Every structure is written in C-alpha cells, then in structure tokens.
Amino acid sequence: MASRLFLLSFSIFFLECASRILSHLPPTEESFPVSKQIQWIQSANEFTLRNQPLGKDFIKLSLAEPFLKSFTKETTAKYRMASFQFKESLQKSCTTQSIDEIKKETGKITIKGKLSGSDCSSDYQIIFVAKSETEIEFKITLSDPTLNRIQFQYGSHPEERIYGLGEQFTHDELKGKTPFLFTEEQGIGRGDQPITTGANLLAGAGGNVYTTYAPIPHYITSENRSVFFENSGYANFDFSDSRNTRVEFWDFQSEKSLTGTIWIGTTSKGLIEAYTKKTGRFPKLPDWAYGTWLGVQGGTEKVSAIVKQAKDAGNPVTALWIQDWCGRRVTNFGDQLKWRWYADETLYPDFKKFVKSMNDQNVQVLGYINSFLADTDPKKQGDDFTNPLLAEAKSKGYLVKNQKGEDYLIQTVGFPAYLIDLTNPLAVRWTKDLIKKNLIGTGLSGWMADFGEWLPYDAKLASGVDAKIYHNRYPVDWARINREAIKEAGMEGKIVFFTRAGYSYSNAHSTLFWEGDQMVSFGTNDGLPSSIIGLTTSGISGYALNHSDIGGYTTISNPLKNYHRSKELILRWAEASAFTPVFRTHEGNRPLKNWQVYTYTKPDGTKSLGDEDTVTLFAKIARIHFALKPYIQSLVEEASQTGIPVVRHNAIVEPEDLNLLKYKYQFFLGDDLLVAPVVESGEIVQDVYLPRGKWQHLWTGTTYDGYRKIQVPAPIGKPPAFLRIGGKSEALIRSSISNIRNKD
C-alpha cells in the first residue's frame, strides 16, 4: 500500500512539474507551415523548426526540462596583464519555465511565458523569424531588467561534431567540451608544463585550453547546421551533454535581448559563406604580400644587411616588418617597443628616405601600432621616456577611465600605459589622423595592429556603454578604425594591417589576422602544434586570412626549463607557414636567445643565433611559399567573394572521412593540397592519412590511393604535402611546384 501511495504521489508531482512547462500545449502532435519549406512541429515532448525538403532541423527544444533559465549574479573580475579571473555570487535564480502562449504566423513563431523561482519572476518572449528557407533569426527578451544572465538550451545529436567558436588553439572539435568566449591574452603555456604553472605562480598568466585572443560565438556542425549569437558579453558554451547544447551569456540585458541566427545547408562551405555574407569578408591582399616578410629590428644598418643576406640566398623577400620603427624599450620581459606612434630617428635616421630605399629594392616596409599610449616607468630608476602623444590624449580626454573617472592606468608587461577610448568620436578621429600622418604618411605599406583584448572589465567609457559588453567589441572597433584610416587616405587595397584580437564582425574590418604570441616550443597547447589548430578553427568562423609568427614569439629563461627557439623549431614552423597566406618571421621577445633565420654580428661583436645553413634552408622553404603564389592568390580571391578560408579544416574539405578527422594537425590549402606538417621534435618520418581519391607526394612524385595511412620521409626543407590528382587546381599547383622541385 505504501509503495502505491508513493507511486501515486510521484506521478502527481511529475505531472505538476511538467504542466509548468507544457501548459496550454495540445496533447497531440501538430505542425504549422511557417513558409513553403519550414515547418513548426509541436508535440507534448518537444518543439522543432524544420526544413522539410532537406529533412534538417534548425532548432529542437526539449520540454523534458526548461530550455530557458535566467539569473542575477554579481561578478567581480581580477585583472592582470589581460588575464581575467571572475568570481560570481548568485542573487536571483529563475529556473522554472511556463509556456503560456504560442502564436503562429506566416514566417514567424512567437513563444511567451514566465520564468520564476523562489526569489524572482519574469515574463519572457522568444521570436523565431524565417529570413529565408535556410535561415532563421531568433530573439529572446525578458521583462525583468535585473536578470543579467540568460541560459538557452537546445537539442544536439550524440554523434554531432562541433567546429569553430573563433580561434581555438587546443581543440579542433568541441563536442564534449565547455569553452568560454572572452577575448584576452591567450596565456603563457595554456596547459603545457612546467611553463603554465610558473606563469600562474608569477603573474596568473598561464591561461588554459580555452583562452584565446579571438573568440567568436559562431559554430558549424556535422549536421550542416550553423549557429551564431550576436551578443558580445562573456559567454559559456556547454557541449558536454551529448543530446543538448547549453549556452549562457552574461550581461545580455545591456543589449536588450539574446539574439542570433541559425542556418542549415548541405555543405559546411555553404554555411561559412552564409555566415560571412552577414558578418563580412576579408579584402584581397596586394600583390607584394605573397613573398617573404622578414620580421627584423635593430636599426637601419642591421635590417638592411639582413634583407641583403636573405635576397642573396635566393629568398623572395617582398616585405620588411620592423616593429621597432617607433623605438626600442628594453624591459625585464625582453626587447619591447616605445608605444608612441611616430618614427624613431635614432634607430632609423631619415625614416622616409629609408622606406623609399627599401621600396626601390621592391621591398615594402611595415611597422607596428597598438591602441595603448605608454608612460614613464616609475619602477625604473632614471627612466627618461617621454610620450607627447600621451600628454595630448590626456589633455583632450581621449583615454579610457576608471571607476573614479580618472584615466585608467594599466600595468602592461614591462611598463604602465593607457588605452585610447574607442567609443569617443573625437578620440577615434585623432587616432585615424595619427595613423594617416605617422604611418601612411611615412610610406609604410602596412603594420601590426596589436592588442585589443586589454580593456578592463570595470572601465568607464565615453559613450556610456558598459565595458562588460564592450570588452569583446573593442578589438573589432580597433580594426575598423585602422581600416577607415586606410580608406580615408585613399590606400584601400595597397596597405595590409594584421590583428590578433577579434570578435564577431572583425572579418568585416581587418585585412589579415595573425595568431598572436605562441611559445617558441613544440608544446601541444601553446607551441607549433597549437598554431595549426588556430588556423583551421578560425577559418570556420570567418577569419579566412590568418597566419602565425614563424618560430613563435614568447621566449622564457627559467631555472627549471629554458624556452629558447631552436634551429629545428624555426625551420619546421617555416615549413608549416609555407602553406598559409602570409609567410612572416618574428625575432621573438628575446632575440639573442632565439635561433634566427639570419646571421648578424653587431659592431660590439655580439652575434645572433643562426648559421649559413639556416639562411639557405629558410630561403628554400620561402621559395616553396612563393612558388604557390598563383594558387594562394586564387584562394584569397575566393575568400574575398565567399568567406571560405584559405587554410581549411579537414571537416570543410572531407567531412565524411572520420579517420581523417582524427589527424587534427593535417590541413588543406584550398581543396587540392593536403599538408601534414611535422609538429614534433626529432621526427624525420611522418605518418600521413590520405582521404578519398589519388594523391601525389610533392617531392618524390609517388602517387598513392586514398583512404589509407602512409609513412613518408620528412627531411627539413621538404614538408609532407600531397597534390589531389584530378582536383580543379591540379595543373596550377603542379606547374608551380615543378619549378621549385627542379631548382631545389
């Protein structure tokens, strides 16, 4: 008897709970034609928006539990060197959902109801609007403005694979993972040891497998579905439940709603094309951009000598990137720059004349800028640094403020600095004029537009926008301002600037991305392998033109383990970079500790790490990249028209080959060149998996059938790469590589 009473009580309790969600719903399944092809299917168990001819669901909302929840949480952010740590305290929790009305109209479905809890109650509304037969927009609003967290859950298939979310560095596929999206320093090590532990102990700057400069709340799936959220607050994506995806955005009420778009299609390329049609595409690169970009610093004499040395070795140098054009500033972190944006006449006397002399040798000159203005370092005794641009910006009120309304002093790596307030129209005009006069006006053909991810969480901005939601937008505006300056100067298509921080719509403004500051190591999470993942994942979310510092950047001297660049590392990194849009080197933050692609002896007898063999091998690898110029140009042209990336994830080109998807460090250049770079130290033979079709090894000419794993020799200078026989670009690639193979 007792067991029967228990079962009866449990059944009543279950029905009461279910009724909170299922109130006003018909007991049997029904469907409503939203459009000719889209159906709204409603049952006691779930809601589904489906494209009937394709048999694909835009979205499925299970009614077994609330698919919408909301909270109020107070958040404090610990901020150091653009690494953020958050602490939250719960104030309100609305976790019970009722559905009170479903309004069905042609092209539109509206759901209304209430979210409630012991301490809160709010009306909600969800609107789905059909923009086309393959595109749905959604908007979720709540009546209680004090609720600042929203959680939205929708269905997923257990076998569905998830790709994208901007530039990731560790995971190329995200099913089962719980990434967060917030632009910040990627971290030093990101899980590679012992450097991550050391960086955390010293500065809380180690990062983890999800920290990234350039996240985007957009992904595609193996079900040929694409999801994009417009919001810019901190976000958590939870793919750990095999049957559901749960997304939580912070501070959404500052943007009035949670808004997004869902596309369905037949190919991942089609989905990327639809996404970038909405959010923007990169322009074509100028013709000079396809040669070697030598990243060198140290003054006119040094850089001129290294350019000559490289060209004499047969290296197709077309650009010289001198980040210290604005001056050198030595700190505890290494060789840094004077963040004052005009030419340093001590290092580069008569800078305009120097730039012209390089141009006369068919070498374009690129510089460096960021949105900081540096100050004198009070920790450095007798620091004689001055910055007239900072003094001007302070006097005119162009800087980001703190909670007290004072200019926000930020301790960067090496010295204090201030951020320009990009929400202040006068500050924006001043910054663009500075770029036009001091960079474009001196003849520079481009620059690194660095940083963008450092806006403090508690900053005060001129426009009144909340820094919590503007933080992720700041790098987008930084790219926009650089691009507008170029357009206003009449130099569109002739100048290239490259950015590392980004978010949604960065691809509408930036002309090129680079992957930021990897370690000079073979580390999985923050070394050479991570640069491959950064390329393949970022392309899925719109960063169609991307590249990395050849050899990495972050160099650490440590009693436990030194992270100094080796000859092997820089040459292996060059091999991978030969199959990317841009081939650019970097000396790293401690140039004298790193192996370089040049040899140079300073007047005082100090020698760089490098040898003649490296100069020769690097030139040979550079010629591979340059030989592929016609093919890469065709891919850049395609990217400008479709948004499809130049470097392609395996899931874009061969989505059905589950074996290929296991080889996450292989990638495609276009569709017809498969690259399997060596990413481990000491490897001279490489395992390669070949997908469907026939493939020809570039260096031996051996042809292999697909759907198999092979081993090929991988000596430095001959990176494992394979031509698709019968591909539309076969003839173009074959003619390009045959010239190199015959010469080298």
UniProtKB/TrEMBL annotation:
InterPro entries: Gal_mutarotase_sf_dom, GH, Glyco_hydro_31_C, Glyco_hydro_31_TIM, Glyco_hydro_b, Sulfoquinovosidase_GH31, YihQ_TIM-like. One of its GO terms (molecular function) is hydrolase activity, hydrolyzing O-glycosyl compounds. Residues 284-634 form the Glycoside hydrolase family 31 TIM barrel domain. Its EC number is 3.2.1.-. Pfam families: Glyco_hydro_31_2nd, Glyco_hydro_31_3rd. Keywords: Glycosidase, Hydrolase. Residues 643-726 form the Glycosyl hydrolase family 31 C-terminal domain. One of its GO terms (biological process) is carbohydrate metabolic process. The keyword DNA-binding does not apply. The keyword Hydrolase applies. SUPFAM superfamilies: (Trans)glycosidases (SSF51445), Galactose mutarotase-like (SSF74650), Glycosyl hydrolase domain (SSF51011). Belongs to the glycosyl hydrolase 31 family. PANTHER family: SULFOQUINOVOSIDASE (PTHR46959). This is Glycoside hydrolase, family 31.
